[in-house]
Design brief:
There is one protein chain. With 616 residues, the chain is an alpha+beta fold. It has four domains: 7-26 and 444-606, Up-down Bundle (Multidrug efflux transporter AcrB transmembrane fold); 32-107, ACT domain (Alpha-Beta Plaits), CATH 3.30.70.260; 140-222, Gyrase A, domain 2, CATH 3.30.1360; 281-416 and 436-443, Gyrase A, domain 2, CATH 3.30.1360. It is 48% helix and 26% strand. The protein has a four-stranded antiparallel sheet, covered by helices on one side. Helix 14 packs antiparallel against helix 15 (539-571). The longest helix is centred in the C-terminal third of the chain and has 55 residues, at 445-499. The protein is elongated. It starts with 6 loop residues before the first helix and ends in a 10-residue tail after the last helix. Residues 230-287 form the Protein translocase subunit SecDF P1 domain. Belongs to the SecD/SecF family. SecD subfamily.
């Protein structure tokens, strides 16, 4: 019999529709503004007394709480008003110590029965939720120079152990040059160094004084160092973002030397930029002895008193890379300090350096990589050029009383805030190379809310116009097309939610375009049915022919559009990818609803029945 589906096909369509409806439902429940408290150490939990103090402090500040929920690694405090988030975080941070991380969040309000099915709402992008977007560029040449500094220190220690005299070491680009008193020392040093450092090309150019050995990194090693620098910085940034406690952050590599950071929902953008972009690191060095050659020493000023200086060894004992954990506290005089835990390598190096230098001073040096921008003329045009520079300052110079191990403390910090940020940076890991902001974009939560409202309005207007056109043009069959269109929207939202896709403004544009294109299949089918009826074909046969003969044209048209969407996704960046994802899913759902769902409705309403006149 014409225009009848077998039972299994009706059941299949019904199952798809029910599943789509269930997984689209969570998007009807808006997220709640919240403050998330999590353990910084992973083994510290809030007790009832602390929760009561927090609840009382928020009540005193007239901050309304919806409810407080226990989580595996902390608690989540849901607020009534999103404008209270910043104040709530400041109050809670003041009541807790460094064992906890207090962060802003947007908490899902999906009912428990939907969560038990694994249903969750779509993730909202930066332009809809609000937040900050940073693009940072890794200084690749600085990465190479830092590695050369480490190699130079190791080479000097090796030569001192072999009792080979050297005069000076210099770094120029990718080349490290060491000067010796005579050719014999140079030859012996080259034999030793080349065995331990195989990643260099060795040359002996003429030197004005004595003999010199030029060591240039191979291109393969340079590429390896630069790639490692980007990967290490990527890991460090992810750790820092985790310390901030941002929900659904994006930290990814872009191109050979850039990293993109997106922090949805972040309101305190100044603090986010300060933590994400911080390039601070530490170095621990011994104070120079009076008889130390000038080539092995360096004079540095104190951070809080530039008139005061100290003569230090160039060789570094350890850096911030060897810190495994850091927390803040106060010394016996009530001044802020940072308590340091070192990893195994760092503890061994620190113990080796201090046990043989008891009574000698050791300095903690704070290093900050910064940039300054100046305007220069190039080819008759004013061009802004970024000049990186490094600030080094001593924050502590103390006498070694006994051999140090894996634990010690740093004093001499200006404020508790500086101590907290330094501890955070040391916990999250040091940067392998300096980074600089090259782009910054901030979207406020109010603008994100307005974008959502305008996006929903555009979908509503687009759908209303399509519905009106189909009703006017195709009458009763227009109702069929509109039911299929509504089903298409539900399935598209469900698919985006199930895949965990992030919805952005370009994504909403893709949805609007999908709604406009979704009825194309029905237009082709209905126009074909009209032609068959005008050709005096019986109504049931005309309906059957309309669906069967329009199928090839529908598939061809949608496949070409799908190929374009796939190309956009493969070569595009963030916004273009968002548009391509919604467009691709929309094409698939449109074909399903435009062909199968609409025909199922037609079959159930007029299929196999004696119809004398068709309202189309």
């Amino acid at each position: 019999m014409l225009n009848r589906y077998p039972l299994w096909k009706y059941l299949l369509i019904l199952v798809v529709l029910v599943v789509g409806l269930l997984y689209a439902l969570p998007n009807l429940y808006p997220e709640d503004p919240a403050v998330q408290i999590s353990s910084a150490r992973g083994n510290v939990s809030l007790d009832e007394n602390q929760l009561e103090r927090i609840r009382g402090a928020l009540d005193d500040a007239d901050i309304a709480i919806q409810r407080i929920e226990d989580q595996p690694n902390g608690v989540l405090i849901r607020l009534v008003d999103g404008s209270d988030q910043l104040d709530a975080r400041e109050i809670i941070s003041g009541l807790l110590n460094d064992d906890y991380t207090v962060a802003l969040n947007l908490a899902e309000s999906t009912p428990a029965w939907l969560e038990s099915l694994g249903a969750s709402p779509m993730n909202l992008g930066l332009d809809l939720r609000g937040g900050v977007h940073f693009a940072l560029e890794v200084d690749m040449q600085a990465a190479v120079e830092q590695r050369l500094q480490v190699n130079a220190s190791a080479m000097r220690e090796t030569l001192r152990g072999a009792r080979i005299r050297y005069r000076d070491t210099q770094i120029d680009g990718n080349t490290l040059t060491m000067t010796f008193a005579n050719a014999e020392d140079l030859s012996e040093a080259r034999d030793i160094i080349s065995g331990e450092f195989p990643d260099f090309q060795y040359q002996t150019p003429d030197a004005e004084r004595g003999a010199s050995l030029a060591m240039t990194l191979t291109q393969q090693k340079i590429d390896e160092i630069q790639d490692y620098a980007v990967q290490q910085n990527l890991t460090t940034l992810r750790n820092r973002v985790n310390e901030l406690g941002v929900a659904e952050p994006l930290v990814q590599r872009q191109g050979p030397n850039r990293i993109v950071v997106e922090l949805p929902g972040v309101q305190d953008t100044a603090a986010a930029k300060r933590v994400v972009g911080a390039t601070a690191n530490l170095e621990f060095r011994l104070a120079a002895r009076p008889d130390t050659p000038a080539s092995e020493t360096e004079t540095l000023a104190f951070r809080n008193d530039e008139q005061r200086t100290a003569e230090l060894m160039r060789d570094v004992i350890i850096t911030g890379e060897n810190v495994s954990n850091a927390s803040t506290g106060f010394d016996q005089n009530g001044r802020p300090q940072v308590n340091i835990n070192l990893d195994g390598t760092g503890g061994t190096l620190m113990n080796r350096a201090t046990r043989s230098n008891i009574g000698r001073s050791m300095a903690v040096i704070y290093i900050d990589n910064k940039t300054r921008t100046r305007t220069v003329m190039e080819d008759g045009k004013q061009v802004e050029k970024r000049e990186p520079y490094v600030e080094r300052g001593i924050i502590s110079l103390a006498t070694i009383q006994s051999a140090l191990g894996n634990r010690f403390r740093i004093t001499g910090l200006d404020s508790p805030t500086e101590a907290q940020e330094l501890a955070l940076l040391l916990r999250s890991g040091s940067l392998a190379a300096p980074m600089y902001f090259v782009a910054e974009r901030t979207i406020g939560p109010s603008l994100g809310k307005r974008n959502i409202e305008q996006g929903i309005l555009s979908v509503e207007i687009g759908m209303l116009l399509v519905v009106a056109f189909m009703l006017i043009r195709y009458k009763a069959f227009g109702v069929v097309a509109n039911l299929a269109l509504a089903t298409n929207l539900v399935l598209l939202v469900a698919a985006l939610s199930m895949l965990g896709a992030t919805l952005t403004l370009p994504g909403i544009a893709g949805i609007v375009l999908t709604l406009g294109m979704a009825v194309d299949a029905n237009v082709l089918i209905f126009e074909r049915i009209r032609e068959e009826i005008r050709a005096k074909m019986p109504i049931q046969q005309a309906i059957h022919a309309g669906y069967e003969r329009a199928f090839t044209s529908i598939v061809d048209g949608n496949i070409t559009t799908l190929l374009v969407a796939v190309i956009l996704f493969s070569i595009g960046t963030g916004p273009v990818k968002g548009f391509a994802v919604t467009l691709s899913l929309g094409i698939l759902t449109s074909m399903f609803t435009g062909i199968l769902v609409s025909r199922a409705i037609v079959n159930l309403s007029v299929g196999g029945k004696p119809v004398k006149k068709l309202w189309i």
